[in-house]
Hints:
Blueprint lengths: L9 E4 L10 E3 L4 E3 L4 H4 L5 E2 L1 H14 L6 E4 L6 E6 L7 E6 L6 H6 L3 H15 L10 H18 L4 H5 L17 H16 L18 H16 L3 H14 L5 H13 L3 H14 L6 H17 L3 H14 L4 H13 L3 H14 L4 H13 L3 H14 L4 H22 L2 H36 L4 H14 L2 H18 L1
Parallel strand pairs: 1-6, 5-7
Antiparallel strand pairs: 2-3, 4-5, 6-7
Helix pairs in contact: 4-5, 5-7, 8-9, 9-10, 10-11, 11-12, 12-13, 12-14, 13-14, 14-15, 15-16, 16-17, 17-18, 18-19, 18-20, 19-20, 20-21
Amino acid sequence: xxxxxxxxxxFVLVFFSxxxxxxxxxxxxxxxxxSEYIDQCGFQKPQRLLGLEKKVDSLFNxxxxxxxxxxxxxxxxxxxxxxxxxxxxxxxxRFVVIQENTLDLDSLIANHDWNILGRxxxxxxxxxxxxxxxxxxxxFEEEVEADEAVGFMLSKMGVSKENSLKTIDFVPDSTVNxxxxxxxxxxxxxxxGWNWGQDGTSTLPKKDYVELLxxxxxxxxxxxxxxxxxxxxxxxxxxxxxxLKAFQYSGGKNRKMLAEAAYHFHQNxxxxxxxxxxxxxxxxxxxxLARNGKLNVFVIVGINYYFLEExxxxxxxxxxxxxMLPKDLQTLNYLAATYQKKRDWEMCGSYVKKMIKxxxxxxxxxxxxxxxxxxxxxVHKAISLYRRAIYITPTHTKSRxxxxxxxxxxxxxxxxxxRSKGYYQGMGQKKYKKTxxxxxxxxxKAEQVLTKGLDLNPDDIRIxxxxxxxxxxxxxxxxxxxxxxRLEVLGQQSE
Length: 495
């Protein structure tokens, strides 16, 4: 074949973060860093292949898809590439970039150039499946999904199963790694997609997207009006369902109503429904939204996954949002919280540090960083950060309680040593007394931190309860009784 002797690179350009995300290129067999390729083409003024886009549109009409990417040519890029790009004018633009501007689908099939055709369809498959192509996701799963899309498209184009499998023949089994499956599994993915195309499936099977209803302009307009009325009356849950119905009766075209439904479901705490709507919206395309609107889609999808406790998916979408707008505190906060749920304290702390740089006057950020250091057993750093949070806001109860509790825990650890006969015999009387003095000093510091907090807010129940714990431990019965009486009074007042 005329293209057989050429070595084509197929790579995926992903979002970049110096902290966690790395741009990758997929050679169709593996992922590699592509920082050296980023500036070669620029992606500002490459030639857009409108003729090829029309051919792809015809194919997508056949399989019930809507093209969500542009096709461009760049001589500096070898081969064919699927790319997500969030720089310049708008976030998350999708591209398929090819080296030559003469690629033609019909001629590839006529010439049996399955190698090149497979790579081109695989690139489109990534976008059809809405892959974000960042290194916090499961590349293995995404590659298999893209291969399924290849088989499905070839089936709908009338290509036989035997020829469809030839798109994988050139991939050697030696390329198996943590991102790409063995050839047999990739062929199974192509066969699975090809069978979908033959068994009457009109569109590529998707994840849990919103189902459409028979198109009815009357029903669509009616539900739009009901949505607007409910929205004006502040009945947002009802408005979300009406907006969803309007989208379903529009044949999937009324994306504005779908966006309204997704947002209101989220606001009402219906995270699973919100997620379903937003994933459908991403599949249908968010080009009609302003830049901030596009950003909010990724943020809210990430937050939905967070509340559904799907931590890896939350990180995937929140990271994408963070790379679009690095200074968004809400995104940083949920990224830190998600890594905290995963008990990845190092990553959690890295995002909290970014929040502190952006919002240094907020004691919550400093407090949260203290928590991450405490989890990593870096007690002195945690103490320093709790003190800093108290300095920023003296009435910051969480920091006072955390600092006092840390002092008490340190004291308790030493008390266990003091009760050990071996410790006394090994250290001697002088060091034993010094350790005893350290225990008393730590407990005194804990009491002082809390009593200063009570001076600022005498009715702070959390501080009173922590003080009560200390007084019980130190045997200060008079102070213990005073705190107990105060807590009793506050309890009666709350009733």
